[in-house]
Structure formats: C-alpha cells, structure tokens
Amino acid sequence: MNVRNLCLAFLALTLSACGGGSRAPAEGDMAMGAAEGAKVTVVEYASPTCPHCALWQQNTWPAFKAAYVDTNKVRYVFRELPTPPTDIAAAGFLLARCAGPDKYFDVIHAIMESQSEWRTGTNPRDSLIRIAGGVGIDQAAFTACVTDPKAIAALETRVKAATDAGVINTPTFLVNGTRVASPGGEGTVMADLAPAIDAELAK
Fold first, then answer.
1. Do residues 104 and 30 make contact, with C-beta atoms less than 8 angstroms apart?
2. Against a cut of 0.90, is the pTM above it?
3. Where do runs of H (alpha helix) occur along 3-103?
4. Using an 8 Å Cβ cutoff, are 11 and 140 in contact?
5. What is the pLDDT of residues 103-125, one digit of tens each?
C-alpha cells in the first residue's frame, strides 16, 4: 500500500469489510495497560474508518478497558491497518501520531465516532480538522502532519509489517499471539476475547 499516494490523494480530493500477527513488540506499537513483558498481551489491528472497529469501540471497549486495561491485567497493543476509505484512514493515523502518545487513542476513537458524519455527507477532511483542533493542531499543522514524508514512510512500514504478518481484516485480535476469531462480535459481551484472556491469566 502506497501511503504517500493515499495522503496526496486525500489532500487533492474535496473529500466529499474490514479478516497471523505477533505478540512481540513491533516498531510503532501504541499500547495501554500493563508494561511490556506482561503475562498477557492483546493486540488489535484496526482502522479508524472500519465500521466494525467503530462498533467494537463503542459497544465493547469500555468493558474490556475496565476489566483488563485499567487493572493492568493485560498489555493492550494497537496496530495500524488502513481500510477503505484508505486515504482518510491514513490521514487519521498520521494525525493521531502528531497529536502525541497521550492523545493518540483520543484521536483514533474520535475519528471512529465521526464515521456517522462523513458517511452521511459531511466532508471527511472537515471532520479530521475539527478533531485536530480538539487536540491543539490547527489547519496548517494538520496539512503539514499528513504530508510529512518521514511520518508517511513510517506508516508504510507499519502497514507492511501487518500485511506481512498475514493480517488483512480489521478488527483482528490476538491474545498472546493467538488469533481470536470472534472477539465478542459487535455486542456488549466479550464472548470470545474474555475467555481467551482469562485462560492465559490462569496459566
């Protein structure tokens, strides 16, 4: 995937299903919860433009975070894999990186929440600029952020690592390196993810 071309396309436009992986730390991992080397590591490959990711974020993330992340029972690792519309996803990932580690997840989650805006007619660029402003990034800084060659190259590297690991769909979850086929779907109960985590914690 040529992220550089995606970002250039994003700026040029008026901007009028998301299905291997590794437990080992990867370049550019964003994480919450327990420290590196924790007994259980949960890796999520996701995209801010994936509707299934947004539903999981809305319906399941609060319970997952409260049960496992806030309690430091697991190390939660987020890995980036842009899905259609990939130009928006790529710009979103770059914006989240520019916001900094403390605000990275706030930006990703805000973009997921904004899907209802731009899927019903709002210009996606306007949504991203609004989100950028919420974390102290003005429009000029936003443009510089999503066109930064080094940041784009780093994102391309992360995307290649995901695809090289055989990850093609989002969200994809791994518990200690083992893929969980259906992490509770899009409902409120972590039907598959919680048992997989609890089994690892019990070892």
1. yes
2. no
3. 3-12, 51-59, 61-64, 86-99
4. no
5. 999 999 999 999 998 888 888 99
